[in-house]
Amino acid sequence: MEHNLHTATMEVQMESTKLVKPASPTPPHLRTLKLSPLDRQFSFMSKPCALYYYSGGDGDQDVERRRRIERLETSLSEILTRYYPLAGIYMKDTHSIDCNDEGVEYLVAKVEGIKLSQLLNRRDDMIHQLTHLSGGESSTPLASIQVTGFDCGGLVISVRIHHIVVDGFSAATFIDAWATASREGLGKLVFPTFGLTSFFPENNLPAQKPMPPPKIFGTDKLVTRRLLFDGPKISSLKAKAHDHDQREPSRVEVVTAVIWRALIGVRQAMNGRLRTSVASHSVNLRPNIVPPLPPLCCGNLLTRVAARFTAENGVTELPDLKDLVGLIRDAVKSSIRAVAREDLYSTAIKSRNELHEAMENSEVDVFVFTSWCRFPFYQVDFGWGKPVWVSRTHSPAQLIALLDNEGGDGVEAWVTLNPPDMLQFVQDDQILAP
């Protein structure tokens, strides 16, 4: 189940870098996009999503590769007329996006001497060398895309977008819309809606508590492991974690509980006692907003749900999976309910403030999760079939990211920790189990 991202050699040749602009100018009345209080909470790039595609034919693969890359660039330019803020510039002083059509960074790269199938057979050794996108604290450009071709005709499409413009739902919507534009054109697409501030009043908002700086930051100081929980493993864990008075746990609930329990054990080993801890997940608010928003509202519409395990004096035994699943489920139930538009900002800000307060408490361990499960990444078809794999990459901060596996019945967990914690974490019986 556990796979290490060792260093291996793979030469990635950068062929070109350019800014792709929208195919037509953004109208003057859309030039300035005011960011919402929820958007302004994020000052970092999201981690890249990478989609892996095999060759679609038996012809000249180099010709086919170039044709696909050209098609991707043309359709990107076209879809940016709908997703125009991604081609703009973040204006920190005014908390807005200048939608000036500056463009999206578009890199074209090639890997020679290795087939995509070979990379996938050694994915944990090599994928971290594949992507070279802009990011970090920089907000220019707001979006970066890299298309990497292989001699066999395979392609990897990596996308990174600044979190200040989109959340995971919005990013997935953009990628799917780009693929539709490539495959069918713009005719069938639903227009996305930006400008969330027009839907939600900002009166009497609570003060936003800044997020404490990470104790450790930088991919050179952290270790990322990919854990695969396949369908049979998920079924086994569900059976162990199922309280028969309740519904069966979901994939995300049971994998979160397994990893959380292992991390509680790590902290116990490091401190000589059980410690109180919080498992925090991002949750999409869109389905709960009353009255409902228009379809495809883009921006940051998420809140943080925090499940808390409270350590009791004298207790040394780790909590069982049933208990942790129950804590996760109770936290979601108490946090996810109908939210009136006028209450949305204050609800989301309060939940994030509570998380930041927990992070500042030296007696509480906070483990941050994010889930892309059920986002339709495995359905993204640019015109040559669906991806054979979808991945993330190393994180510069401690994080647990969950994605669907290739079969759709399991979960891939990308766990980023400091090296001492990782050494202890991988010794957990559920992490080691086949």
Task: Tell me what the structure shows.
The protein has 434 residues and is of the alpha+beta class. The protein has helices spanning 61-79, 116-121, 123-126, 168-184, 231-241, 251-271, 321-335, 341-360, 419-425, 429-432; strands at 2-4, 12-20, 32-34, 49-53, 89-91, 96-98, 104-111, 143-150, 155-161, 223-229, 276-284, 289-290, 302-309, 339-340, 364-371, 389-391, 399-404, 411-417. The protein has a seven-stranded mixed β-sheet, with helices on both faces. The protein has a six-stranded mixed β-sheet with strand order 2-7-8-9-4-16, covered by helices on one side. A hairpin with a 4-residue loop joins β8 and β9 (155-161). Mean pLDDT is 90; it is low at 1-8.
Write the layout of secondary structure elements.
Layout: E1 2-4, E2 12-20, E3 32-34, E4 49-53, H1 61-79, E5 89-91, E6 96-98, E7 104-111, H2 116-121, H3 123-126, E8 143-150, E9 155-161, H4 168-184, E10 223-229, H5 231-241, H6 251-271, E11 276-284, E12 289-290, E13 302-309, H7 321-335, E14 339-340, H8 341-360, E15 364-371, E16 389-391, E17 399-404, E18 411-417, H9 419-425, H10 429-432
Parallel strand pairs: 7-8, 11-15, 12-14, 15-17
Antiparallel strand pairs: 1-10, 2-7, 3-6, 4-9, 4-16, 5-6, 8-9, 10-18, 11-13, 17-18
Helix pairs in contact: 1-4, 5-6, 6-7, 6-9
